[in-house]
Amino acid sequence: MLFDESGYRLDGYRAPVPEAVPGARTLDLAQVRALIGQGWIPVDVMGARVFGIGADGTWILPERHRSIPGARWLPVVGWGRLEPWQSDYLDASLERITGGDRKAGLILFCKSDCWLSWNAARRIAGRGYVNLGWFPGGVDAWADAGLPLVEIRPEPHRGSWSR
């Protein structure tokens, strides 16, 4: 099954995506750059399947991750189904990133042809965030334009978690 009853993609996350996602406007590279310049926050949701989380909330990952400068990385929020701890992590991270402002501008992305950002944008819109952009080209479009990528770490997780 590729989609659940709510319409979230459950598998085959690297596949062609639709042109739009409910609750967010689709952005191209020029729009992303302009909105970042206006203070919108880029949120990378590229998934991490192999990880640990230390007692201090620091993620322990086997590989480095490069992304758009200034991006905040939430590596477990784009899956089709979230476990309770992942949902709590999303809520706490959004609260911290936006200062609790559901009108803050957020740009959701991962890589090109990546359903993780589609799922995450839809999920975050459902939580009442109203200024959402979806950048389906993600880090691939950014790098293809000759723009720099920087190494980033996931937002810390302050709660319990399980595998």
List the helices and strands and how they pair.
Layout: E1 25-26, H1 29-37, E2 41-44, E3 52-53, E4 59-60, E5 65-67, E6 72-73, H2 84-98, E7 106-109, H3 115-125, E8 132-134, H4 138-144, E9 150-152
Parallel strand pairs: 1-8, 2-6, 2-7, 7-8
Antiparallel strand pairs: 3-4, 5-9
Number of helices: 4
Q: How large is the share of residues in beta strands?
A: 15-25%
- What oligomeric arrangement do these chains adopt? single chain
Structural class: alpha/beta
What share of residues is helical?
25-40%
Structural write-up:
A five-stranded parallel sheet has the order 1-8-7-2-6, with helices on both faces. A two-stranded antiparallel sheet has the order 3-4. Strands 5-9 form a two-stranded antiparallel sheet. With 163 residues, the protein is an alpha/beta fold.
Short description:
The protein is of the alpha/beta class. The protein contains four helices and nine strands, in the order E-H-E-E-E-E-E-H-E-H-E-H-E. The protein has helices at about 30-35, 85-100, 115-125, 140-145, and strands at about 25, 40-45, 50-55, 60, 65, 70-75, 105-110, 130-135, 150.
What structural keywords apply?
single chain; 163 residues; 5-stranded parallel sheet; two-stranded antiparallel sheet; 9 strands
